[in-house]
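Why does residue order matter? Because the sequence determines the fold. Keep that principle in mind as you read this record.
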Amino acid sequence: MENQIILIDKPTGISSFGVVAKVRRYLKAKFGHKIKVGHTGTLDPFATGLLILLTGQMTKKSNDFLKLDKTYEATLRFGYTSTTGDPEGKLEKISNIVPDINQIKNTINSFLGVINQKVPTFSAVKINGQRAYKLARAGKNFETPTRKITIHNIEILNYNYPELKIRCKVSSGTYIRALAEDIGKKLETGAYLIALRRTSIGQFSIDNAKTLDGF
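Structure:
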């Protein structure tokens, strides 16, 4: 398993670093020596789906994978916001407005193309050398950067208020949590993610990934 690409279907409730640690321990036990393992882009603990792991000399190519477009299936819940943009945060009731499907389509279409997106407060970006999420948990006040990203397409898979399920293909560096919050803000109803699944990274598909237990 030296110098390999490993596709893992990450389960919910574990960090990307936790997945790397489990795979590293498994490989060491199987081959009797330590094998270098790294990932090519994290998924939040609540999220599931495709993680690309690299072993041995392949870890030097991680930046090539980081730049690839990604596809996600995301479920938004309207009417509330979350301090973290996902189920792990503190929820606040915003509105009882029930947007109709045409309002949602028009709003979604307004995010297509190259847009500016503000990085979430609860993220792994570094602010003066410290991770933003650590500063946020400590109650510190700070500003996160704004980045140019590309939303290639967004498809509505299902809508049954208060839940909206979408599939979106986006550029590297896109935060789906932030996209969900921005959609809710523009609809004036609030929104946060209750489920997120990454189904592809570049040409790599979740269909070819192994479960963590199966690996």
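The chain has two domains: 5-67+203-211, 70-201.
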